């Protein structure tokens, strides 16, 4: 849903501010992953150093988005808060696991919100996207159910990757595989969207 109070901003600027920090985290990690830094007698690996830079970068870009557009989505705010908390814990405790758990928490939260709506017979997804994507009530319920389970699958996948595979694999998975999985999921729903699309009425009825 488009916020009527949002200020017009060139798409490339908004996209850069949204995906730029993630891209820089990916590049920074593979640049510094083999480096070790000593501060106050403690050793910090490249992952922790890049995380320490990533947290303020997320806050800066989120602040710029708010300054330029005059508005932020709840997802943008929650993501910034979660990155700050989990990334901050990773740096403070010198433990990269906290940042790796962040996607799991984020996707489980999204799934939980959607499931709560479904139990109440309501699609919270429709509340957000109904103006941009007109579907029948039945279509919204089906899409919401599928999206909720998809978020659960992403959360489980994140847990498997960070717990059993290397940090290099997890960084690549988080940067590329998760967005690709989201695109593939949305593309796979084309049949549902077509079957449950609302027909738009144009013009006024003629006698």
Automatic annotation (TrEMBL):
Its main location: membrane. GO terms for cellular component: plasma membrane. The chain crosses the membrane at residues 12-32, 44-69, 75-93, 105-126, 146-165. It is found in: Cell inner membrane. It is a multi-pass membrane protein. Belongs to the YciB family. Plays a role in cell envelope biogenesis, maintenance of cell envelope integrity and membrane homeostasis. This is Inner membrane-spanning protein YciB.
